[in-house]
């Protein structure tokens, strides 16, 4: 644990500056069909093969709300401990672009489906609550492709109309690291809920980052700039660092910050002005007359609430309480749904503490080395569980277990089979062990004398010799016991 | 055989079912009338070959069922029709052929009808005279120099001139009722949500509603029944039961209370219209109705409210016509230039005017003063009607403040053009059903209509009241065919 006190400030020439960050996260709703049409949302299909007449805005086509997407956003809202608005409205956000077939995006402006909520971050300096301002549903636009042809641009409408949840945080974040933890936490919550796959490479999760700076200790927020559409945590962090420094330099040289929209250029690691506030679009929001206001029944919200899975925060509390894990340990296990799923499968049938150790130490190092996610773990939860059970019942030593684990990585087999095949069963017959020990001691009379005259460190040497002779199969507990007796 | 043209839709369907004539004979008759009607300019697209094929197919089939069995029907060119060009009267959709069929037209075809052609209309249904169509203005059978009204002017003209046995239009602020009034025909704007908007080129989504246009009230009930119904593809469509409007049709209206709103006595209303209104009252009284004076105090705000709400929605609805996906595309050196050229060349003046107005009233800084206020006033207008319907069963007003005017008369004066919708617009803002029924003539021998406004989803009552007026007014079309060759 390196730091335990928050210390992210920009040190300017004229003092310390605090960085204030708010995020607008666009999370693609996990659903089979789009927000207002029945087209598929599957990623990676041939361009323009998942486009209905509604998605491409043919004359006379009308949107019909996808009830599943509503439920997904309610689920997410409840997962963020947020206020659910039973009455919300879909508005049209009007602007022209070639990948926006309707000439407007259906979104929620004044009356979003979800109101204020919160996300808890576990930072090295303690937990921190990040406020959620709102969550609303909206349609995604299509994709413009400008680099396929020197003269023409292409438009792929497969994405057009896919449901997005825009999750707006309060300006509560203070460092790139907090942004990192916030995004991961948000992503984790949605993956636990099954409402967004959080796949940043495929664009399922992207964010607009609002950054401002203020003198450390100031209460008033500075003028912010919005960095549009950043699609990786690393880029968000780079963009924030650059942008905060840029703003500090401007302010310290007596200049003002212009409220504007900027773009992050990852190649050059700079943010660039995209449009100023004066050039900002007038989106002419108004309620979409093709859709009735969305009026939900409290009973639906209650039903969804009753069916919510255990979320990372609650799971963590439970692991601490019931499994005797430290907050740090529990955090690692709940950070990703797949890890906690794996852990919970392993512990069905074996010691929890050992399971935690094996997963976070042995398994994670294998996964890291091979750049694998736990979903693609070479060792299944069931087999790892069996291995741990054999250690705790004394069938094999920790050392043998590690050998078996090596073999399991090559072939995900029941460890019992590996032990049989390789002849790795532990020697636990006291008579046999006694024989080995007596033999060893007789060969090391000099050391026995030294030991008995007070050089107790030599005990480890004797154990090691026994292990060498038994090729590591001797039961270490028994060896200890017998050795102690014989050396009295 | 020679009298097929002047038979009503109901009689034609009856005749076909009784095998008095075939669908092919009926179809040939209307094709012939249509072919001889070029001077009316009622059609944008004619589907005569396909209609004839459909008629023959119908005749070959033993099954003669359906409310509209064997009927060739031409429809306003705002309804998307599968594999048939659909223009909305605009250059920007001049080459647009939908791959789909609107719900309302599908409903007609399910009842045994088939498409005869696509009828001219004001561009994107924006207009009251059919002069804004890219395909030229439509003429009124009642006079070569007269407008047929709008925006469903092609439909009204074709119907009055017997080019189609019945038709459908759309009504956003009076676009069915006003042309019906100008051509001596019956036009019904149903309750908002009664007919699906799916597949209808949108003008103003919260006001648009499709409806029937027919020669008489009986036909109106028949068409209305055929086209109505809930549609899951339209979120604003209402799941209300479709009644058997034609068999329930009855002029027994004894004891119904009819409201006369004092606010509809507008300044400078021609005396003939005032007289017609009184006559209408007398007809209803004669049939046993009770007349009550009522007040709809916010009526005077309806027109300005409408001209904020409708253009606002239109400015957004028409954003999709950008030349990228379908329709007319002009050249440009970059995307913005292509948009600008496409939309400058593709849209006519009235459409541009409304896009500009709509964009303005939604702009930040103006939204509250215009759009938001208009929505509040719209609510007050609706409340006026709700209150009135606590006392009366229907409301009687004139359909229009004038009879058909001359082509070109109001073309350069949009406000005086907009004023022509003063009696029809409040109904759209309130989402109510209303019908225009021909009730007499002015001294120029031009038809005049009366409007009956009903409670939500109570189209039956206004149909019945219209029938009572129709029987007593004994209205007959008095034009002489001038467009034949």
CATH fold descriptor of chain B: Amidase signature (AS) enzymes
Uncertain stretches of 5 or more adjacent residues of chain B: none
Structural category of chain A: alpha+beta
**What's the overall geometry of chain B?**
globular
Count helical runs of chain A: 15
- The H/E string of chain B reads HHEHEHEHEHEEHEHEHHHHEHHEEH
Alpha-carbon distance between the two ends of chain B: 21 Å
- Provide the structure class of chain B: alpha/beta
User: Can you tell me the overall shape of chain A?
Assistant: elongated
Compute the CA-based radius of gyration of chain A: 30 Å
Ends distance of chain A: 44 Å
Q: Round the mean pLDDT of chain B to the nearest integer and report it.
A: 96
Give the secondary structure arrangement, pairings included.
The complex is a heterodimer of chains A (488) and B (485).
Chain A: E1 10-12, E2 15-28, H1 67-79, E3 87-88, E4 91-94, E5 104-107, E6 117-123, E7 126-139, E8 143-145, E9 154-156, E10 163-169, H2 176-193, E11 205-215, E12 225-230, H3 233-252, E13 260-265, E14 270-276, E15 286-287, E16 294-295, H4 298-306, H5 312-323, H6 327-334, H7 337-346, H8 352-370, H9 381-392, H10 398-410, H11 415-422, H12 430-443, H13 445-452, H14 458-469, H15 476-486
Parallel strand pairs in A: 12-13
Antiparallel strand pairs in A: 1-2, 2-10, 2-11, 3-16, 4-5, 4-15, 6-7, 7-10, 8-9, 11-12, 13-14
Helix pairs in contact in A: 2-3, 5-6, 7-9, 9-10, 12-14, 12-15, 14-15
Chain B: H1 9-17, H2 23-35, E1 43-46, H3 48-60, E2 72-76, H4 103-110, E3 114-119, H5 153-160, E4 167-170, H6 177-183, E5 186-189, E6 210-214, H7 217-227, E7 257-261, H8 271-286, E8 290-294, H9 302-317, H10 335-346, H11 349-362, H12 368-388, E9 394-398, H13 414-419, H14 425-430, E10 434-441, E11 447-454, H15 459-473
Parallel strand pairs in B: 2-3, 7-8, 7-9
Antiparallel strand pairs in B: 1-3, 4-6, 5-6, 5-10, 9-11, 10-11
Helix pairs in contact in B: 2-3, 5-6, 7-15, 9-11, 9-12
């Amino acid at each position: 644990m390196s730091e335990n006190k928050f210390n992210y400030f920009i040190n300017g020439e004229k003092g310390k500056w605090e960085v204030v960050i708010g995020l607008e996260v666009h999370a693609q709703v996990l659903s089979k069909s789009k927000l207002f049409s029945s087209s598929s949302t599957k990623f990676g299909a041939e361009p323009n093969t998942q486009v209905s007449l509604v998605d491409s805005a043919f004359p006379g086509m009308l949107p019909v709300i996808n009830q599943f997407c509503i439920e997904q956003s309610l689920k997410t809202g409840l997962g963020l401990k947020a206020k659910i608005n039973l009455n919300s409205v879909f508005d049209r956000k009007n602007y022209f672009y070639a990948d926006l077939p309707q000439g407007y995006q259906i979104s929620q402006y004044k009356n979003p489906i979800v109101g204020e909520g919160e996300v808890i971050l576990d930072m090295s300096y303690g937990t921190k609550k990040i406020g959620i301002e709102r969550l609303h549903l909206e349609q995604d636009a299509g994709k413009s492709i400008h680099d396929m042809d020197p003269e023409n641009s292409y438009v792929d409408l497969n994405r057009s109309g896919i449901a997005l949840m825009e999750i707006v945080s309060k300006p509560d974040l203070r460092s790139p690291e907090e942004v990192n933890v916030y995004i991961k936490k948000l992503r984790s919550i949605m993956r636990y809920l099954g409402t967004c796959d959080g796949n940043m490479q495929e664009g399922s999760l992207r964010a607009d980052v609002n950054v401002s700076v203020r003198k450390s200790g100031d209460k008033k927020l500075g003028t912010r700039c919005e960095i549009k559409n950043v699609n990786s945590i690393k880029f968000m962090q780079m963009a924030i660092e650059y942008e905060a420094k840029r703003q500090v330099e401007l302010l310290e040289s007596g200049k003002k910050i212009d409220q504007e929209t900027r773009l992050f250029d990852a190649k050059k690691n700079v943010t660039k002005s995209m449009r100023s506030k004066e050039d900002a679009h007038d989106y002419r929001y108004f309620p979409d007359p093709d859709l009735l206001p969305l009026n939900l029944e409290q009973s639906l919200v209650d039903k969804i609430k009753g069916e919510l899975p255990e979320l990372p925060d609650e799971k963590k509390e439970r692991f601490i309480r019931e499994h005797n894990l430290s907050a740090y340990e529990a955090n690692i296990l709940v950070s990703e749904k797949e890890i906690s799923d794996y852990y919970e499968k392993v512990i069905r049938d074996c010691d929890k503490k050992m399971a935690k150790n094996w997963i976070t130490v042995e398994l994670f190092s294998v996964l890291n080395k091979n750049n694998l996610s736990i979903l693609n773990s070479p060792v299944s939860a069931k087999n790892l569980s069996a291995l741990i059970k054999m250690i705790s019942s004394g069938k094999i030593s920790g050392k043998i277990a590690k050998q078996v684990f090596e073999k399991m990585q090559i072939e995900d087999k029941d460890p019992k089979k590996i032990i049989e095949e390789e002849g790795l069963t532990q020697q636990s017959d006291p008579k046999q062990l006694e024989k080995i020990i007596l033999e060893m001691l007789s060969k090391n009379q000099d050391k026995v004398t030294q030991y008995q005259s007070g050089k107790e460190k030599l005990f480890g040497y004797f154990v090691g010799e026994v292990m060498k002779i038994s090729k590591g199969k001797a039961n270490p507990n028994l060896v200890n016991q017998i050795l102690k007796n014989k050396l009295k | 055989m020679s009298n097929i043209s002047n038979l009503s839709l109901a009689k034609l369907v009856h005749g076909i079912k009784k095998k008095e004539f075939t669908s092919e004979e009926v179809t040939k008759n209307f094709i012939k009338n249509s072919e001889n009607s070029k001077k009316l300019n009622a059609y944008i697209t004619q589907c005569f070959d396909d209609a004839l094929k459909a008629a023959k197919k119908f005749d070959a089939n033993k099954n003669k069922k359906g409310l509209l069995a064997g009927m060739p029907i031409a429809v306003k060119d705002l309804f998307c029709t599968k594999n048939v060009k659909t223009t909305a009267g605009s250059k920007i959709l001049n080459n647009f052929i939908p791959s789909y069929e609107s719900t309302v037209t599908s409903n007609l075809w399910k009842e045994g009808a088939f498409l005869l052609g696509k009828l001219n209309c004001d561009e994107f249904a924006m207009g009251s005279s059919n002069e804004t169509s890219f395909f030229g203005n439509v003429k009124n059978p009642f006079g070569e120099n007269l407008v047929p009204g709008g925006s469903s002017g092609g439909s009204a003209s074709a119907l009055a001139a017997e080019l189609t046995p019945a038709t459908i239009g759309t009504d956003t602020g009076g676009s069915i009722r006003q042309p019906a009034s100008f051509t001596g025909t019956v036009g019904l704007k149903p309750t908002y949500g009664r007919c699906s908007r799916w597949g209808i080129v949108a003008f103003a989504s919260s006001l648009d509603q499709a409806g029937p246009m027919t020669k008489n009230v009986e036909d109106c009930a028949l068409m209305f029944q055929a086209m109505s119904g809930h549609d899951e593809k339209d979120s604003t469509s209402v799941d209300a039961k479709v009644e058997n409007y034609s068999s329930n049709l009855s002029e027994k209206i004894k004891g119904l209370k009819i409201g006369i709103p004092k606010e509809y006595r507008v300044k400078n209303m021609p005396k003939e219209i005032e007289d017609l209104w009184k006559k209408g009252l007398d007809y209803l009284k004669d049939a046993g109705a009770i007349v009550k004076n009522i007040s709809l105090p916010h009526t005077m705000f309806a027109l300005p409210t409408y001209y904020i709400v409708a253009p606002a929605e239109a400015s957004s609805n028409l954003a999709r016509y950008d030349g990228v996906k379908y329709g007319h595309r002009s050249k440009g050196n970059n995307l913005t230039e292509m948009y600008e050229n496409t939309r400058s060349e593709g849209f006519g003046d009235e459409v541009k005017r409304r896009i500009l107005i709509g964009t303005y009233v939604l702009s930040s800084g103006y939204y509250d003063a215009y759009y938001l206020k208009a929505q509040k006033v719209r609510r007050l207008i609706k409340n006026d009607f709700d209150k009135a319907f606590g006392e009366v069963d229907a409301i009687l007003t004139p359909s229009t403040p004038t009879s058909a005017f001359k082509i070109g008369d109001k073309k350069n004066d949009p406000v005086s053009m907009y004023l022509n919708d003063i009696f029809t617009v409040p109904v759209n803002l309130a989402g109510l059903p209303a019908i225009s029924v021909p009730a007499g003539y002015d001294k120029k021998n031009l038809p005049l209509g009366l409007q009956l406004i009903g409670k939500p989803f109570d189209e039956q009552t206004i149909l019945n009241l219209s029938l009572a007026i129709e029987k007593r007014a004994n209205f007959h079309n008095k034009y002489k065919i001038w467009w034949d060759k």
